[in-house]
Amino acid sequence: MNNFLFKDKIDVVLIDWHGILSKRGFWCNQSKINKNLENWCNLIFSDEIMKDWMRNKMSFTKLCEDTAYKFKLSQNEITAYFENDIEEYGPKWELLSIINKLFPSAKKILFSDNPILFKEKVLNVNKRLTSYFDSIILSCDYGVLKDDKKINLFDVALEQLNLENFNNVVLIEDKIGNCTYFRKIGGHIINII
């Protein structure tokens, strides 16, 4: 029988950030009131730029140097706008409470594709959040994303959590591709859309 049905058999819960613990994107309010910032966000959130930033292959400084001048923005302004919206980024404490009730004995792992700005600004100011998790595995710390082909963040999780497989692990994720892959490699999923 499937271990997922026996919640006490689940050892680890991997919890995604964006789309799960936070439905709000970075610069969510500030970009609505500043057209230059909105245009800059549209550029950097394009697929490859964002992926390189989340892999930490491009620093925030370099990202700003390469792009912000096009929109008459400075790194300091962009950072200030980010900090102005920081309360909007999450997390959903009620969801974390539900996860604790569903899987009381499992380790809770923040497992996310996110840039170092998230770690430096969101996690560093929210000690309650970091104390909730037993561990934090972010793409910016390992240089790989969940959907990378050769080595991905799931491979990192196996190693960092000293697991042989994902048989007793649940992934809470919004992206169906990540859920499909995780199920294929033996894990259990809760896909929240």
Draw up the topology in text.
Blueprint: E1 12-15, H1 30-33, H2 35-44, H3 47-54, H4 60-67, H5 75-84, H6 93-102, E2 107-112, H7 116-125, H8 127-132, E3 135-138, H9 139-142, H10 153-160, E4 169-173, H11 176-184, E5 188-191
Structural class: alpha/beta
Strand order of the largest sheet: 3-2-1-4-5
Question: Which spans of ≥5 residues are poorly predicted at pLDDT below 50?
Answer: none
What is the radius of gyration computed over CA atoms, rounded to a whole number of angstroms? 17 Å
Largest sheet descriptor: 5 strands, parallel
Name given to the CATH homologous superfamily of the largest domain: HAD superfamily/HAD-like
Characterise the protein shown here.
This protein has two domains: about 5-25 and about 90-190, Rossmann fold (3-Layer(aba) Sandwich), CATH 3.40.50; about 30-85. Helix content is about 45%, strand content about 10%. The chain has eleven helices and five strands, in the order E-H-H-H-H-H-H-E-H-H-E-H-H-E-H-E. The chain has helices at about 30-35, 35-45, 45-55, 60-65, 75-85, 95-100, 115-125, 125-130, 140, 155-160, 175-185, and strands at about 10-15, 105-110, 135-140, 170-175, 190. It has a five-stranded parallel β-sheet with strand order 3-2-1-4-5. Helix 11 (about 175-185) links the parallel strand 4 and strand 5. The longest helix is centred in the first third of the chain and has 10 residues, at about 35-45. The two termini are about 25 Å apart.
